[in-house]
Amino acid sequence: MGCVLNIGAAGPEPLVIKESYKSENGENKFVAKGLSLELINLFASKMNMTPYYQEPVLGEKTEHLLKLSAMLILGEIDILTGVFPLVKPVIDLAEPSAPMFIHTLKYLVPCPKRLMKTEKILTLFHLSSWISMGLVFIFVSVLFWILSNYPTRRNDFTGFSLLAQCFSAAWAVLLGMSVPQMPLSPGTRSLFIIYVWYCYAISTVFQAYFTTYLVEPGYEARFETLEDVYRAGLKYAVADTMEAFRKLVDMKELEVFEKETITDGVEVYRAVMFMRKTFTTVTLIYPMHLARLSGFDDESKVVCYLDESLVTWSVGALLTKGHPLSQILNTHIKRCIEGGLLEGYWSKLKHETNLKANKTDENSEYVVFSLTHLTPLFILLFVGYILSVFSFLCELLLFKKSNKRIGSLKFKQLSILADLSVLEESK
Predict the structure, then answer these.
(1) CA distance 361 to 359
(2) What is the CATH number of domain 102-109+219-314?
(3) Which of the listed residues 139, 178, 295, 369 has the most CB atoms within 10 Å of its CB?
């Protein structure tokens, strides 16, 4: 047992990690570790000192940070580490150590969602392409009817004599079905073969992309600038500590956004990543660790940033003014950073987090085509059945109505004939 080194720590994971356990006497105890504490723990072990931790504060609540800062200024703790940036307002109150790592502030925005399969299929062609195909379909059908009813047509050809038959035949060719009767005249045959090759080309392109988008429909467009975020109507989510830090950085562009205040910074990141209704400013390390805790091996599925970086600052430990261990601790931190010890610990921590996390089902890069991908086709088939039944019922009603009209006309004719016969007999 050496001298006691009083340490205070505050910040979200992975900067500060608290692991609770019960001792042999049944007492509740904890072990403090994390990126901001690893080098200090090594320092205490090297200097044969006993680290005594104030209970770590997980998160970024302002009152907790102010409480620990006051304890450092009053000399109740020797070292304070965690989320504290090495900026002028902080350095004026305490003795800064050598930087342990660099934080870069960026805009955290919701990641693009996977597109719905039916939505992607509808946008397979541009609206202008759909309109042009519809116009070609109408034009060819009408042209079939005109050519078939031209005065020089063959008398034995009846498959295209009605306009409805022409539309039905053109629709059958577009769907790759056979027509009820082949055209006979040279002009109609020429138009027919041109239309068949046109439909074959359109169908080939459509089927190729159709199958691709059923399996992998793709993602929405990602946010690239604040203008994209503003057009999407996202709110700016901020915690108390973020708001205090934002006042130190010029961020006038955020004044146009509606603000949503959340107590804890971690909940702010969680809301952006999973609720997808807000955006925020954040350093890169926190949401990446949160994604791994949530079971995502690939953080890019839920962690997305705008391209621009706002500000960069150093993070380290704070000591009381004139502390005798200041120079020794700085030398220790510099040598550990140069030796890659902190990077090694960060890699180990990420691996441990992956092992402990509950795995989340992520969309694999390779997707097996199955019946579930045919859901849009069955929906279209079901809609087609409904329309077919509706058209059949309409035909029945029209048929009955026409029969009644014909019956009434026949009845009138018979009654007139009967009256005429009666008149003739009377004469």
Answers:
(1) 7
(2) 3.40.190.10
(3) 295
